[in-house]
Amino acid sequence: MIEMLKSACYFIGVLSVLVIAHEWGHFIVAKLCKMRVDDFSLFFGPRLWRIGKFNGTEYNIRSIPLGGFVKIAGMEPEDSMHPSGSIILGANLDSGGFNWEKYDRSLLGLEESTFAEVRFENVSERIVDAIYGAIDDDGRLTASGLENLNSLLLSTGINSDEHAYIQGVINASESATRPDPDSYNQKPLWQRAAVIFAGPMMSLLFGYALFCSMGFTYGLPDPDNHHPAVGEVTEGKPAEAAGLKTGDWIMAVNGKAVDFTNIYFALRSSVDPFDKTKALPIRLTVQRAGKPMDVVVAPFIKQDVMLDEHDHARKGKDGKEILGAVSQIGITVDSVWTKYGLVKSIREGTSIIKDEVVSVRTSIFSKDVKNNVGGIITIGKVIHENSKQGSNHVLYVAAMLSVSLGIMNLFPIPVLDGGHLMLLLWEGLRRRKLTGREVYGAQMVGLCIIGVLFVLITFNDIIHWVHRQ
């Protein structure tokens, strides 16, 4: 129970830090571009604690402990549909006289307090149609629309309530303030693109900084040392009884030298060939504190295990995954970790992040993509397993996840940062801003794509989790 609670804290902490780092990238560039940032919050949901308001930005801690967000004025689709200065016309009017449900009330919405003296049961559908047609997609009164409404005011075919309604709309248009010059949607295209790109870039830089700083603090997996090391030693299992300890280098199994290419098979293949329910003893040659020593371990057998890439017989003749018996001693296998100086740490960090970027790209575009990607369940499982081996493993996983977050967010799917960049590119090519309706429509398509991917990846996670139980 304590281990699960510890893992849950690591899980929430890691994802929250990674999302905050990502959002801070958007935040800092928005500030540099003199955009108005209304809110920067740790976590989501209802506000728990208002930290304060500084330089126009309110800082909050919210109730759902996962991630965080930054709210930049003018960035949401509805801000484009109804920017400052537009006429938000119509509202909660359920009066008779015509079928109000026929109209988009976000555009026809009249503030009742503004038109308190208008009796809407006396307003004809013809007048409502005229007002609706005078408003563009961004909620603004067009020049031709204004001319048409002025013509209606001079007409003798309207009653006093219709006259007051039309005059109120014109007055609202004339008194509307100009768009906020500090909002996102009023800034040049290159500044908006910089704000969007800053999030994924900050995720990549944060992962890189973690790799580099770990080099001279906790250390990093040594790429030149191919000896596997003992990671977690499971309590009550044969490895613990035999005296194996975390950090021991495994030099040989039954007298044969091992590395990461054959260590798994060597440990899993000690099944008695004449009795699949028993295992043969394993003699491990390990190095501890620079001194070699032999340790004899009596493995246990685990039946119906899905054989993986480390086993010789991974698939049956029909190509389907097969189950089998394997020997286990109760350890996880780890890399040998080495500390470096500052300069060497930066070099190693640079090398690791290059390899990680290539690895993420290769995994996503490989034929075996369903086995290479994972969702929230896989992330939780990986953090849980690594938390047992120490905080250095959790930090290493956090760095890798940060890199993955940065890359995945650059995919050209609306609602992701890459999708926003794609829409900005389209705006630049056609030399005209997208309307709020166009942005909203694109984001709905993006949400559908993300929703489908989420369901497929989660289903894939569950299948893998069940098979490995």
Task: Output the keywords.
single chain; about 475 residues; Pdz3 Domain; 4 domains; 4-stranded antiparallel β-sheet; 15 helices
Got a strand count? 12
> What would you call the structural class?
alpha+beta
Percent range for β-strand residues: 15-25%
Largest sheet: 4 strands, antiparallel
- What is the subunit organization of this protein? single chain
Number of helices: 15
Which regions have little confidence, pLDDT < 50, spanning 5+ residues?
Answer: 82-112, 312-319
Order of helices and strands: HEEHHHHHHEEHEEHEEEEEEHHHHHH
Report the C-alpha radius of gyration, rounded: 31 Å
Mean pLDDT figure: 83
Overall 3D shape: elongated
Could you estimate the helical fraction of the residues in percent?
A: 40-55%
Please describe what this structure looks like:
This protein is of the alpha+beta class and 469 residues long. The chain has four domains: 2-72, no CATH class; 85-175, no CATH class; 226-334, Pdz3 Domain, CATH 2.30.42; 342-467, no CATH class. The protein is 46% helix and 17% strand. It contains 15 helices and twelve strands. A four-stranded antiparallel beta sheet has the order 6-5-7-8. A two-stranded antiparallel sheet has the order 1-2. A hairpin with a 2-residue loop joins strand 7 and strand 8 (291-297). The protein is elongated and about 105 Å long. Mean pLDDT is 83; it is low at 82-112 and 312-319.
